[in-house]
Amino acid sequence: MEKADIGLIGLGVMGANLALNIAEKGYRVAVYNRTTEKTHEFHENAGELKDRIIPCDTLEQLVGSIRAPRPIILMIKAGDPVDQEIKALKPLLMRDDIIIDAGNANFHDTVRRLNSLAADDPTFVGMGVSGGEEGARHGPSIMVGGTKEAYDRISPVLTAIAAKYQGEPCCALLGPDGAGHFVKTIHNGIEYADMQMIAEIYGILRDGLGLSAPAIGSVFSKWNDGPLNSYLIEITAKVLLAVDPDTGKAAVDVILDSAGQKGTGRWSAIEAQMLGVPATGIEAAVAARSLSALKAERQVAEKAYPSGGTALSPEDRARFIDDLEQGLLAGKIAAYAQGFAVMAAASKEYQWDLPLATIARIWRAGCIIRSQFLDVIAEAFDKGSPENLLLAPAFIERMTKGSAALRTVVSTAALSGLPVPALSAALSYFDSYRQARGTANLIQAQRDFFGAHGFKRLDREGDFHGPWSDIGA
Ligand code: NDP
User: Which residues of the chain are under the pLDDT cut of 70?
Assistant: First the structure.
């Protein structure tokens, strides 16, 4: 039998769809899954792609079915399963074979896995994939970390299966070792912030203006034709317009308000903190999901503090809805600026030389945060390397307009007791960032007062202590 071009381990939601995508692009793919029945069920249901798929019951069979040197994609649950699978695979592979971990790995694990390989072990590539089930099947965004040599060998199949934005594949080598998984992690952090801000605007429209789910859906649908145009706004409109078949109510109204998280958002916030980069929109979004999980406590708290969330009656309703649109855009710009600042810092810290414009480009299609807005980000990085996107001319113009609307949105929500944690974090970040004279002089004085940490002066070079002993320190 003709051998496969590539192997794939893990036929869950992502792996099965990725295998079909690979086969559809004309490659032969050998597949293996821990639970053997799934492998055969998958093969049976592969329709006209069946002939390009080789189902394997064992790892030995899988390895024997792929033409050497073998690229093998791991698309399984992240964490320990990946270590177990690598351990089982390694003795079966040769030096030139490539193991590609395509799951949502923590980039520290990717670096550790790479460092633990001996000189005659197979090559290891850490690859972030975004786009969910649909993306995996018809074109995801692919963020690769590894050597150029390994990438050159696997890039034909990766670029073939990747999403295309105006014909350009959304796939790139972003740097060595953990670079691909790091960028995927930050992608997910930005995704958390984007989704949270959308949910906050939904909350204002629902609880502040009293709009029904379908009416809010229509607002989002209209916004999707403007500067907010993106996959997340598009699906938000669709979700809000959907009806629950059992009750006839809006589907979103029968869903428990408690959001799940698998870890990538939290990792983003942790990495931002470790690098000393403010990513308050992402942090607020992660915290909001944690707060959402405290449903029972929130129910008790609502009884203890019943006055929260009063209805809004803006003088000009249409204008307020326009402010919500512009405010959301401004919040989104701040969150993306933070995410890109985290990547810029990581790039320096780990000497990855991350191509920020390319990252924006490969996120324009296929992934969950895809939007035309990323085109503007890519152009901003092409034109120079702004310290922060907020300093790029294209964004200065947008933020000047959008921040006024964001201020209206955040202040109106605050006065009405409507929670907007990510939007308010974005606004405070913007206001702090554009304030040349901040308030940390007082923090430094306090630190010196209780801990003799010293401070710098505005008017002289050197390290100083304050006159605290004169006033009873
Ligand atoms: P699923 O839960 O659908 O599938 C999990 C897969 O992992 C199955 O093939 C399962 O095999 C296998 N697996 C689980 N534990 C082990 C183990 N101990 N040893 C070997 N195989 C194991 O997950 P997804 O397809 O959704 O996700 C796969 C990876 O892709 C994860 O890292 C996920 O974070 C990432 N990802 C997911 C996205 C999504 O939208 N779902 C998007 C982007 C990335 P078995 O059938 O035997 O249980």
Answer: 308-309, 473
**What are the boundaries of each domain within the chain?**
6-177, 187-433
Is 191 tagged catalytic? yes
Residue 144 CA to ligand 1 centre (angstroms): 19
In the CATH scheme, what architecture does the domain 187-433 have?
Answer: Orthogonal Bundle (1.10)
Put simply, whether the predicted model's pTM sits higher than 0.70 gets the answer: yes
Give the Å distance between the CA of 207 and the centre of ligand 1.
Answer: 37
Q: How far is CA 345 from CA 36, 142, 198, 349, 395, in A?
A: 44, 21, 27, 6, 20
Q: Which residues pair with 66 in a beta bridge?
A: 4
**Residue carrying structure tokens 């051998």:** 3
The answer to whether 124 and 145 are in contact (CB under 8 A) is no
Q: State the angle between helix axes of 317-349 and 179-203 in degrees (0 to 180), rounded to the nearest 10.
A: 160
- Residues 167-186 pLDDT 10s: 999 999 999 999 999 999 99
Residue nearest to atom 11 of ligand 1 (CA): 34
Of the residues 90, 133, 164, 191, only one is catalytic, namely 191
Average pLDDT, the chain: 96
> pLDDT per residue over 180-239, tens digit each?
999 999 999 999 999 999 999 999 999 999 999 999 999 999 999 999 999 999 999 999
Q: What is the pLDDT of residue 309?
A: 65
Measured from the CB, is residue 84 less than 6 Å from ligand 1? Answer: yes
Pairing status of strand 53-56 against strand 29-32: parallel
Residue 103 alpha carbon to ligand 1 centre in Å: 7
CB within 8 Å of 313: residues ≥ 6 apart: none
E strands, 45-122, are: 53-56, 71-74, 98-101
Distance 358 CA to ligand 1 centre (A): 28
CA distances from residue 163 to 158, 182, 235, 361 in whole angstroms, order as listed: 10, 20, 18, 11
Ligand 1 and 76: CB distance under 6 A: yes
Q: Is 10 in the pocket of ligand 1 (CB under 6 A)?
A: yes
Evaluate: CB of 263 within 6 angstroms of ligand 1.
no
**Which CATH architecture fits 6-177?**
3-Layer(aba) Sandwich (3.40)
Q: Look at ligand 1, atom 12, and give the residue with the nearest C-alpha.
A: 76
